[in-house]
Amino acid sequence: MLLLAKTLAFHSYKGGTGKTSLVVNLGALYAKQGSNVCVLDYDFRAPSLNVLFKAKPEHWLNDYLEGNCSIIDTLVDESAKFNLRGKLWVGFSNPSLEALKNVMGKDRRWEVKALSRTLAGKKQIIEEKKVDYLIFDTSPGAQYSSINALAGADIVSLVMKADEFDLEGTKELSKGVYEALGRKSGVVLNKIPLEQIAAGGGAEKFGKTIEAEVGLPLVGMIPCMCELMAMGGKTIYTLEKPDHTFARSIARISETLRNM
Amino acid sequence: MLLSTTHLRIGRCIRVALTNFHILPPARYCRDPFMSSRSADSAVVDLLRKLNRNVEIVSKKIDKLIEVERSSTGHFGRPTVDVPEGLPLDVTTLLSLPDHLRKSAIALSSLGEATATDLSKETARVRAVESDYLNQLVSMGLIKKKRKGRDVYFYIET
Q1: What is residue B2's DSSP assignment?
Q2: pTM, to two decimals
Q3: With an 8 Å Cβ cutoff, are A116 and B94 in contact?
Q4: Nearest Cβ partner of A111 from B90, B111, B112?
Q5: CB of A193 within 8 A of CB of A224?
Q6: Which of A118, A136, A258, B107 lies 20 to 30 A from B158 at CA?
Q7: For the segment A147-175, what is each residue's pLDDT rounded down to a tens digit?
Q8: Is the ipTM of this complex over 0.90?
């Protein structure tokens, strides 16, 4: 089973690129299609999956990394809520202020344990829950928890907007982190204004320009949609509005990742 | 540039040597019938000067390459890693490891404690190769090993 399962990590240089929405919609889509999926909120500095799922789990991923419980104890089965063919388990990180302060105070000694527990936890989830996809949502930038998740991933997807800040930062991360970890990597362009795509010579040409700049293959491109900003954290489009442009973009990305 | 008599003599000697070894035609058979032996000598000296300048450039480049190689490898050619005190094998240290050692370190991080045989199954490498890499990590102070009966177990100290 370990060989068949795919571990995906979604990362970004900057925040606000839409990783969480992407992760949730992708995980939900795979589960809707019949795959067993586990989504882990590894954004310990700004947890948000608990908002969308309205979760109050008994154990947080923070508890697992502290060694206070098994990783299986942290997983909440969200499948029944959405009537999915496959399973959807979600591991949440603690959004309380106390937990956030605790995360900020961690030293390198603790991070060694955290890396080890992340890799061991991933293995346990895949073996015990028989998941087909394990998906990490991470904190932006070079955070320990994010890079721990990347180290455990089979495929790393960088989610970025196509502005100069993101481009330059992603190039640095690509050289210094993704290449070093030797993971299959790709770029998801998100929140791209239609005017920018048109100015770039159309979707295909624009995509190839970004690929050349960043040095990574394009996994998908999602145009900017204002209504998503208003509905962020409320709607899982791949389940509730499968014909929406965003949902169809996620479907294309899911196929690309499935085949990578 | 004016050449000294010494330069010209040296140039003439080299020209004669090259002619005797049939590398250069004799001066009287030179394509340029107006080129005197004195001009030929100075031409040889010019050529030698150019060669000397090129050798200096190549030598500096080689020195630079040696310097780069030394700074990225320690004694015996082993890669050096900036290892912090105490417990160093966090993800930032992992990123600084060469690929082959990083693969072993990540596999060991995942298993916790394992023999070279266990790890070779994770990394899909031959046991002897895996053992060598693990021992490199031990010598770098990044992991430890202990004996349990006949088996040697590698582990990360936490």
Answers
A1: P
A2: 0.76
A3: no
A4: B90
A5: yes
A6: A136
A7: 999 999 999 999 999 888 888 888 888 88
A8: no
